[in-house]
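Target protein
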Amino acid sequence: MAGRIAQTDIDEVKARVNIADVIGERVALKNAGIGSMKGLCPFHDERSPSFNVRPQAGFYHCFGCGESGDVYTFLRQMDHLTFTEAVERLAARIGYTLHYEDGGPAPETSGRTRLFAANAAAAEWFRSQLMTGEAETGRRFLGERGFDAGAAAHFGVGYAPKGWSGLLDELTRQGFTREELVNAGLVSQGQRGVYDRFRGRVVWPIRDITGQTLGFGARRLFHDDKGPKYLNTPETALYKKTHVLYGLDLAKRDIARRDPRRVVVVEGYTDVMACHLAGVTTAVATCGTAFGADHMGILRRVIGDDAAAEVVFTFDPDAAGQKAAVRAFASTRGLKAQSFVAVAPGGLDPCDLRLQRGDGAVRALMDDKAPMFEFVIDQRLAGFDLATVEGRIGGLRAAAPIVAELRDPILRREYERVLARRLGMDPGEVHGAVASAARSEGAAHRDGAHGDAAHKDAAPRDAARKDAAPGGTGEAAVVASDAAPELRVTLATLPRSGEVALERDAMMGFLQYGHRIDPDLRRRALALPLRHPALEAVRQSVAAVDDLSRAGWAADAVGAVREPYRSLAAELLTGPFPARDDDHATVSAQDLARRLVIRSIDARKRELLGAVQRVPAESEQGRAVRLELRELDAQRQRLAAES
C-alpha cells in the first residue's frame, strides 16, 4: 500500500514556500497594509479587490465570497489537485525531497497529474523533432516569418512528423496508456484505432500561467493535409480554450513590472512571438476562439484593479476584425483598466509588420493606439450616411446605448461630446439620447432582476459550496462543510460596541502578531473568556495552539475554529491591522492584550467591592477580600505602567 507524505515534510514545504509568490502567479497582488496583500479574487467575479493574502501567516481569505485557506488549499481549488499532488507540486517547485511514512512509495498520481505529465512529454518530443530532417519544411516556415532556432526554443515550438503513430509510440514507450493519451487530446480514436492527432505540422505548446502545458496548437504545412489550417487540442480536463491565453506564462512577469501595467492581445501564435521578440513582451493571444468574458477574467486578475492599466487589442481592419473588436468591447464592460485598439498600417498583423518594417514598427504600433470606445462608436456609425438627417439620427440611436454604458459620469459627458462631433449634432441632443438610453437600460436590468428573484430557489446560495478547511496541513484537514450563508459570522455582522471592538481588535492582534507578544502576557490574556460567542470561539482555537513559533500556526488555528465562526477567524487573520509597521503593530497588539487583562481585573474588583459591603471587615473572609483588592490594584498599576 502506498505510503503517505510525512507530516514533517508537509509542514516544512509549506513553511518554505511563499504563498504570495504562488498566488501572485495567478493574481495581481498589491500591498494592503502591514504584512498584507490584496487583489481580485480568482474564485468569484468582482470589480473591487477583496482577496487578501498574508504571506507571513501563509494564508489567504476573500472578504467577498469567503474562500480561504493555505497554499495547499489554493492549489487544490485552482488546479483541482488532490492534497498529495499539491504537496508534491510545491516540493518540486523548491527542490525538496519528500519522504513517505513507513518508507512507502509515493501515492499513485491522479488522472490530471498524468495528463500534465503526458503533455509535458509530448512537448519535449515535439521540440526534439524540429531538429530532424523531415522538419525542414517546419524550420523554413518559421524562418520565413523571422523566427530562428533560439526563438523556437524560447517559445517551445516543435514539429509533429507526418506519420500516424510517432507520438503514440514514443509516449507508450514512456509508460502512458492509450486512454491517457486520448484523454490528453494527443491522439485521436478512429475506426481503425488510435492515431496521432497532430501530423505534419508546426506545434506550439499552450501553457497555463504557471508554465504547465495544457495542450497544443498546430499549423498545417503541407498541401496534401486536408485538415484545418490551425488545429488545437480538443477540450479536455486540462484544456479549455476560453480559459487560457497563449503566451501569458511568458508575459506575466513583465505585465507586473510595467507601470502602468499593459497587456497586448493579438490574434495568433506567431503574432505573440513577433511582439515578444520586438520588445512588446506583454503580448498574449486567444487559442482558436474569440476573446470573451472568461479571457477578460484572466486578465483582470493579472492586471488588478488599476485604473491606469491598459489592455491593447490588435485587430485586422476588415469586417471580421471589426466584429472581433465589438465582441472584445463587450467583454471589457466593468473593467477598470483602459482598453484600446491598435490597427497596423496596411492591415498588417504584428508578425508581418515585424517582417516588413522591423521591431520598431511593432513597438510603435502599441503607442499609436485609439481608445476602444471611440473605435466601437466609429464601427456603429459606419453603416449610416451621416450627411443626411436620417443617417445622423440612426447613428445617434445606434451609438447612444454604447455611451450610456459608461458608469463614470465625467467620462460619459466627454464621450457624449465625442459622439456629437462625429455626428455633427448639438451636444444637448446627444446628451438627451444617451440619458434616455441609460434609463431604458436601467429599466431592463430591473425587470431582469425581478424576474430572477421570482425564480430563485429557496435554498441558500452557497449551501452546497465545498470548502477546504483553511490552513489544514494534512489530508484529513482539507475537507469541511460550510455553514449556511445566513449563519455565517463575519466582521461586518459583529455588533458595534466598545466591548466587542476590544475583543475583535485583540483577536486580530493575537492571530497576526501573537508570536511577537510577550508569552506570559499572551497566555494570561488568552486564558480569559470573551463575551461575544463568535470571538470566544476564535479565542479558544488560538489558546489551544501550543507553539506560536511554528510557521503556519495562525492558519492552523483558523482551520480549527468551529463553524459558523471560521470565516470570522479568517477575516481577523487577513484583515488590515491599524499600525504604521510591524514594530508598532506588535506594541498595539500587546496593549490590546493588556486591556483584556485589565478589563478582567476591573470586573473582579467590582465583584469584590460588592462583597466588601456584605462581609464583616474584621472577619477572615473580609481580610482576604481586601488583600485580593490590593493585589489587583498592584497588578493593574503594573499593567498600566507597561502600556
Q: What stands out?
A: Confidence is low (pLDDT under 50) at residues 449-486. The first strand starts at residue 30 and ends at 31.
